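Regression test case RT-17, inverse folding.

Input:
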């Protein structure tokens, strides 16, 4: 951008992150971002280039649990912890390098938490 908010700059650099729940969705989103940016620049009679930097911030695929491991984990966790202590979660848009392992072997990623009797919700394993 320029040096002041009311001056039209010679160039602009926009940065950000984006995530998806599958590799296919990620690639579609990446393509669409490029199409929209270049298209909008063209409408304004400008030029745009889109670069997706992966050197500093590598792409991590979506972490998707193996269905058989999910079934096995749920059975064991319910048996050990009691069914009321095993909660299902909606998918999260986190970025987790564990997904790289899952490209080679089946994997299962689960959050553990603990709570005292007076606590309303569990604390993460990284809390004091």
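Golden output:
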């Amino acid at each position: 951008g320029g040096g002041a908010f009311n001056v039209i700059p010679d160039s602009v650099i926009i940065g950000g992150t984006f995530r998806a729940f599958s590799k296919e969705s990620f690639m579609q989103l990446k393509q669409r971002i490029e199409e929209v940016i270049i298209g909008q620049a063209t409408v304004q009679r400008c030029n745009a280039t889109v670069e997706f930097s992966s050197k500093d911030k590598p792409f991590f695929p979506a972490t998707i649990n193996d269905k058989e491991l999910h079934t096995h984990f749920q059975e064991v966790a319910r048996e050990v912890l009691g069914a009321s202590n095993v909660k299902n979660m909606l998918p999260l848009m986190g970025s987790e390098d564990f997904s790289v392992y899952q490209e080679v072997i089946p994997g299962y990623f689960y959050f553990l938490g603990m709570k005292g009797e007076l606590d309303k919700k569990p604390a993460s394993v990284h809390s004091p």
